[in-house]
């Protein structure tokens, strides 16, 4: 009762690796149109709407960064409010020194990126769960330290100087455009980063850290880079927050609520996809606007939805869309085309 | 003398912190879950105790007998449902789910009970009284009792883990879940027991804190979670007695900081935490290096 | 139950088992029958699917298709801990002792959900005297062979009906392997049935009453050791086609 079998091999040359999909050009064009339309908003809508849009821009930028951290680098940070606060205070400090807050924005972002380095050094050795709380402790510590300086408002905060020269309509328009710029830059930066080597490294790390390391991927460096970029992005959002609020209060800018909002928006929209945060922010804004008179309810509902999504629809709302339509507006993956396949490619890595 | 007072207060407060921390440490040690809602559960326990006392007018100390078991059961249920479900997905999912729970609980409390802080009031001399050591040192009875309770709980937990059947199963499942299954143990049930213990101890700590100080919706994170975590890290991951050491060090650091500048109490604690993180990341009581 | 007492009724049976690891088909419609009192050995090269088969029988893997029957009843849907409580106990690959538990605590965990029977912790100490002195020692301090023995002891105290042994020889010196396998007769004497996976073919042939060879997830050979020749085993093991006799590669290190 013996059987012997042979399995034929497959020549390697028949496999091809290609980038992304054909709809990149379409996406780019549509995105450009959307941005142009958005840029015209201050001329065509009430300032109440642009104010809401600025809030949305802040949350979208934050969500984009949190997604980069958790969805791509596997770092769940519940302390990103540290950068939101730092960004706001950097803008404040520069404004007190005479710089226009708008000009201070990019400086604040860079400053936060730099600040991320020692912070990473402090918390990076901790494993995921403890890493998360450590970032929270770090944020609380930074807030406590900043509160000691009465020259920047101490524990109660102070108004943001340098904005009184603008009329209200103009100010809201400039704030809006600043917000639009920050958000577009954030999205583009993240997209380009993930499309490049960093994206490939992160995917490898996400799939199998040990294998990635032995393949030469600099895991620590990749994560550090992500942490710095996320810090800078959140810092920019914080600076924007200061400008839109016209004041900087420590308990407001360092509130863990920012992390809650960016995390929930990302999770609901779709963790690990670039489109996810956009969708999630939309959900957030809708919920917040409809429930704004009910105080804490929107956060409760947002939180519950996020929990359910995290447990049952891991890839979020965008994951559901992507699953049905196989749509990728911001493709960052590769496709392996196997020989003998029809139009549909083989294993993907998005 | 004020410094001596500070140290004594700090040591005693450390017992409370250790009580907060042991559940967090247990859940991480056994199932690698960091429950970000850990502190909020203590606050919930406190609020439930307040509610029960207000409605039924039972003596304050009896509220422990109701709240602690109820929270333990809640812990078992939450573990078997949400947390295990999240664990099966990934570690990141558990963080997101417990964070979500934390936010939902805090905002839920905020919505239904306003942001005002509450305390569990009591007329018991044992609880609200204090005694004096010399002229400058006043020690609240309650604090001493809490410290004693913390030591007893830690001792009990240590004994339970080392000598009982389920204690062995908990340690075995923590070491190797699959091998435990092959030995006939349902690790989901075992994890549920561990979660029940964690929730029970943190409920105990929460009600005690409500008697000693005040509870507000955000106390769970501002105070309890971050302090518990700091205590665990300072003391050393993976050791129950380390948790007590960490709590004491944290408490002393805070009190000394308060002596230097009254508003620097919390900051002093965090700075010591950061120092330990930098200089001795495995904690003060652990010999091997933990990552 | 002694061998042959129940005639041909198998204690453990696998029918048409198909198991996948992600998209990889690890086992392709495997079937086997283990009679009471047998020593059933599954052999094959690395990656052949041997451990996957054993783990699926133990309940750690869900098969894509097929069924596992124990004592005539279908246990395919049963979780591993419940199979263990019924009497299917596995000694996993790599020992997998509980590192933070002492030697005795490991045995006590093994007995926690065990059935009644001749194997008690005391009985294990009688069989392996050295364990008694080191009962409170951390298992990480034991040698490879000692750990393997403790792992077997941990499984025995559950009083299994079928003992699954996964790659006992892995990482052990040949002398130690001999000693470990030397315990089998005593184990069998208490009425156990053994299903083992072994990479060392000669060792397997020495102890087995039935051989089953896997290659890339498929059965290439099955039968009693007395009925198969060295060449046929080799051919089945390596997947050589035709009558593989007199090949130079076959001579190398072959102890058959």
Walkthrough of the structure:
The complex is a heterotrimer of chains A (350), B (291) and C (256). Chain A is mostly helical. Chain A has 15 helices and 4 strands. Chain A has helices at 24-39, 41-44, 47-72, 81-96, 101-123, 128-146, 168-195, 197-207, 209-214, 219-245, 250-253, 257-269, 275-290, 297-312, 316-325, and strands at 16-19, 158-159, 247-248, 334-337. Chain A is globular, with a radius of gyration of 22 Å. Chain B is mainly α and 291 residues long. Chain B has one domain: ABC transporter involved in vitamin B12 uptake, BtuC. In chain B, 77% of the residues lie in helices and 3% in strands. Chain B has helices spanning 2-31, 38-56, 60-89, 91-113, 125-128, 141-163, 165-175, 177-182, 187-212, 219-235, 240-260, 265-279, and strands spanning 130-133, 137-140. In chain B, a hairpin with a 3-residue loop joins β1 (130-133) and β2 (137-140). Chain B starts with a helix and ends in a 12-residue tail after the last helix. Chain C has one domain: 3-Layer(aba) Sandwich (Rossmann fold), CATH 3.40.50. In chain C, the strands form 2 sheets. In chain C, strands 6-7-8-3-9-10 form a 6-stranded mixed beta sheet, with helices on both faces. A 4-stranded antiparallel beta sheet of chain C has the order 2-1-4-5, covered by helices on one side. In chain C, α3 (103-112) runs parallel beside α6 (144-156). The radius of gyration of chain C is 18 Å and the shape is globular.
């Amino acid at each position: 009762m013996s059987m012997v079998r042979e399995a034929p091999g497959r020549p390697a040359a028949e496999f091809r690796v290609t980038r992304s999909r054909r709809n990149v050009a379409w996406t780019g064009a549509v995105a450009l149109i959307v941005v142009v339309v958005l840029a015209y908003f201050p001329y065509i809508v009430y300032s109440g709407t642009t104010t809401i849009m600025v809030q949305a821009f802040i949350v979208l930028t934050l969500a984009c960064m949190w997604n980069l951290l958790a969805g791509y680098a596997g770092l769940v940070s519940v302390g990103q409010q540290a950068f939101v606060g730092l960004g706001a205070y950097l803008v404040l400090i520069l404004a007190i020194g005479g710089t226009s807050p708008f000009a201070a924005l990019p400086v604040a972002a860079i400053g936060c990126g730099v600040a991320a380095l020692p912070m990473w050094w402090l918390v990076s050795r901790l494993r995921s769960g403890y890493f998360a709380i450590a970032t929270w402790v770090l944020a609380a510590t930074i807030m406590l330290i900043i509160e000691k300086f009465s020259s920047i408002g101490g524990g109660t905060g102070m108004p943001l100087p340098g904005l009184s020269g603008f009329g209200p309509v103009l100010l809201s328009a400039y704030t809006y455009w600043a917000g639009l710029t920050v958000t577009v830059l954030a999205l583009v930066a993240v997209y380009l980063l993930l499309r490049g080597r960093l994206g490939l490294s992160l995917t490898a790390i996400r799939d199998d850290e040990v294998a990635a390391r032995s393949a030469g991927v600099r895991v620590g460096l990749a994560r550090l880079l992500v942490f710095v970029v996320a810090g800078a992005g959140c810092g920019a959002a914080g600076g924007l927050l200061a400008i839109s609020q016209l004041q900087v209060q420590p308990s407001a800018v360092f509130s863990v609520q920012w992390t809650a909002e960016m995390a929930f928006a990302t999770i609901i929209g779709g963790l690990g996809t670039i489109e996810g945060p956009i969708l999630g922010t939309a959900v957030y804004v809708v919920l917040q606007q409809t429930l704004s008179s009910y105080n804490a309810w929107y956060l409760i509902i947002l939180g519950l939805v996020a929990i359910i999504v995290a447990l049952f629809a891991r890839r979020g709302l965008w994951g559901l869309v992507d699953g049905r339509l196989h749509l990728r507006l911001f493709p960052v993956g590769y496709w392996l085309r196997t020989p003998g396949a029809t139009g549909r490619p083989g294993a993907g890595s998005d | 003398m004020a410094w001596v007072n500070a140290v004594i207060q700090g040591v005693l407060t450390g017992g409370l912190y250790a009580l907060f921390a042991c559940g967090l440490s247990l859940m991480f040690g056994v199932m690698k879950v960091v429950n970000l809602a850990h502190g909020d559960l203590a606050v919930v326990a406190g609020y439930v105790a307040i509610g029960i006392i207000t409605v039924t007018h039972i003596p304050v100390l009896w509220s422990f007998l109701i709240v602690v078991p109820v929270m333990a059961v809640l812990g078992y249920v939450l573990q078997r449902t949400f947390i295990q479900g999240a664990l099966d997905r990934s570690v990141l999912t558990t963080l997101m789910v417990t964070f979500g729970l934390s936010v939902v609980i805090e905002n839920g409390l905020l919505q239904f009970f306003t942001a005002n802080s509450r305390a569990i009031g009591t007329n018991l001399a044992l609880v609200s009284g204090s005694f004096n050591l010399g002229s400058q040192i006043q020690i609240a009875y309650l604090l001493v009792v809490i410290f004693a309770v913390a030591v007893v709980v830690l001792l009990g937990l240590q004994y339970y883990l080392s000598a009982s059947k389920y204690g062995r199963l908990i340690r075995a499942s923590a070491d190797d879940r699959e091998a435990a299954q092959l030995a006939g143990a349902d690790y989901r049930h075992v994890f549920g027991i561990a979660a029940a213990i964690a929730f029970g101890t943190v409920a105990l700590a929460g009600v005690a804190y409500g008697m000693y100080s005040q509870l507000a919706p955000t106390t769970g994170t501002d105070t309890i979670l971050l302090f518990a975590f700091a205590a665990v890290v300072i003391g050393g991951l993976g050791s129950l007695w380390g948790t007590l050491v960490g709590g004491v060090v944290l408490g002393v650091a805070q009190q000394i900081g308060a002596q230097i500048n009254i508003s620097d109490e919390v900051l002093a604690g965090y700075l010591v935490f950061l120092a330990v993180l930098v200089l001795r990341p495995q904690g003060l009581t652990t010999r091997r290096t933990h990552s | 139950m002694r061998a042959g007492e129940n005639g041909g009724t198998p204690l453990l049976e696998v029918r048409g088992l198909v198991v996948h690891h992600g998209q990889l088909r690890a086992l392709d419609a495997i079937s086997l029958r283990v009679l009471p009192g047998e020593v059933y050995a599954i052999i094959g090269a690395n990656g052949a699917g041997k451990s996957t088969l054993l783990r699926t029988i133990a309940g750690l893997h869900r098969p894509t298709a097929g069924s596992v029957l124990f004592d005539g009843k279908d246990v395919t849907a049963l979780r591993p801990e419940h199979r263990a409580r019924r009497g299917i106990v596995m000694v996993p690959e790599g020992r997998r002792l509980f590192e933070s538990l002492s030697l005795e605590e490991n045995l006590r965990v093994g007995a926690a959900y065990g059935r009644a029977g001749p194997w008690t912790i005391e009985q294990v100490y009688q069989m392996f005297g050295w364990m008694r002195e080191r009962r409170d020692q951390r298992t990480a301090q034991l040698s490879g062979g000692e750990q393997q023995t403790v792992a077997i002891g941990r499984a025995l105290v559950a009083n299994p009906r079928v003992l699954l042994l996964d790659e006992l020889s892995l990482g052990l010196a040949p002398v130690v392997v001999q000693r470990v396998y030397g315990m089998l007769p005593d184990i069998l004497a208490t009425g156990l049935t053994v299903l083992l996976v072994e990479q060392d073919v000669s060792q397997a042939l020495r102890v087995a009453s039935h051989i089953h060879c896997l290659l890339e997830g498929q059965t290439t050979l099955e039968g009693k050791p007395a009925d198969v020749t060295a060449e046929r085993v080799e051919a089945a093991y390596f997947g050589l086609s035709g009558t593989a006799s007199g090949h130079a590669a076959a001579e190398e290190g072959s102890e058959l």
